[in-house]
Amino acid sequence: MSEDQGPPLLAMRGIEKSFVGVRVLHGVDLECRAGEVHAVVGENGAGKSTLMKVLAGAHAPDAGEILLDGEPVSFRHAREAQEKGVSIIYQEFNLLPERTVAQNVFLGREPHRGPLVDRRRMDQETAELLRTLEVDDAIRPGTLVGDLPVAQQQAVEIAKALSFDARVLVLDEPTAALSAAEAEVLFGRVRALRERGLAIVYISHRLKEVFELSERVTVLKDGHKVGTVATAEVGTRELVRMMVGRDLDHYYPPRAVPEDFGEARLRVRDASGGMLRDIDLEVRSGEVVGLAGLQGSGRTELARAIFGVEPFEAGEVEVDGESVRIRSPREAIRHRIGFATEDRKAEGIIPIRSVRENGWLGLRALGGRLRRALGLGTGDKVEELSRAVELRARSLEQEVRYLSGGNQQKVVLTKWLALEPRVLIFDEPTRGIDVGAKAGIHDLIRRLAREGLAVLMISSELPEVIGMSDRIVVLRGGEIAGELPAGASEAEIMLLATGEGGAGQPELARQEGS
Ligand SMILES: Nc1ncnc2c1ncn2[C@@H]1O[C@H](COP(=O)(O)OP(=O)(O)OP(=O)(O)O)[C@@H](O)[C@H]1O
Ligand SMILES: [Mg+2]
Fold it and tell me: Does residue 29 contact residue 45 with C-beta atoms inside 8 Å?
């Protein structure tokens, strides 16, 4: 192969970018060859997404140049970049849910026949694109995008990129919203696109994916390029050191010992509703209970039922020994149950408000009277809590939309902690969080338990479930399949989760190389 001859398909050189006087990219270079997957890694806020937005024409760089096939280009907006063959797929997709797949793919450049949109041609061409992605059996050109699951919406985004004859494709944390099985399908797709000669820039916090997919990896730190290395020539440890500037042995904080456990703070008895049947569950003060199970086993449903989003239809729930009826999240909060999810939209985070205001949202929603009744006071805890979660914001007055994705997630955490919960449910607490901050979140969860909280933690990452849990409850098909003590093995969890021998089930086995 003559890939080292001639200019790379994509070259970004000396890219600088400041926002309101604060520089977030300091002369960054990035190259990607045709037929290469080039990973970009770095801590939350390192500048990965910003660099990609510059590439995709969403931000204008203050300095530096972008070359395609050695020719300088400049994009004034995203469409111009797309037309030159540079497409980006953001974590939060840019599709219109009320329109069909074909309408989304051809949005703003529909083929016409005379004065009318040529729907047939649009559908045909879309079908063709879906076929090349091998999703034509699952997705039809006429389906409404809003009716598609996330993984298929992502496939539509990719189809759209291909319809522009993308030569450079950027994927910004593409697996964050996918199940392990869906991620595998995406990997296959990425490899196929690489075979076709696309240059693919791949951002992820999951180093395992980086090692699996990429030829080279570029590390950013605080807006600087630390270096570019051949993936095959670097180990996890070295890569992490480049990212965080120090060695990071990802060890989990010590688990609780039996003396640490107090009374049951949360008790669910014989509860059913929706897909859930006969749920018996107890979480004691000081305890972290891990909730494991395959996709669709009912983990999130259970959390939502406890939190009153879709309440149980039968059964009993007790908080601190007192029987309670929780029919709405508001009632859950009144009983001091918190539910931190990975879904910032559903969390009610308001992007155009400051970190401080968002930290206060949960408290404010309670209203003054209830707040006083709960003894939550009015003292400003956001500052202290932001420190506890190691939030990286310029100041507490900074608008949340300007924070990096991982730091927005930490704002979600501060919001819940401000409510001083007795029971805190975490759904995928470290998704989208960088390797360094991950350890910080784990320490925080453990510290909260030590201070007397009862923690219920859902995670698709088995090492995280095993590393964090004092007890592991495994769900299968909406029922509790069994319970395992601290330190159970992945195989034991799989056995319960699948009800079989369990080896090699990809759904649950999303492991981090950390
Ligand atoms: N529009 C904006 N205005 C002001 N600051 C911004 C804006 N967009 C990004 N920033 C800041 O630029 C820095 C880099 O953010 P960026 O989103 O590129 O990080 P990232 O590496 O993608 O992080 P993550 O892994 O959390 O997604 C952060 O400090 C962020 O707060
Ligand atoms: Mg980002």
Answer: no
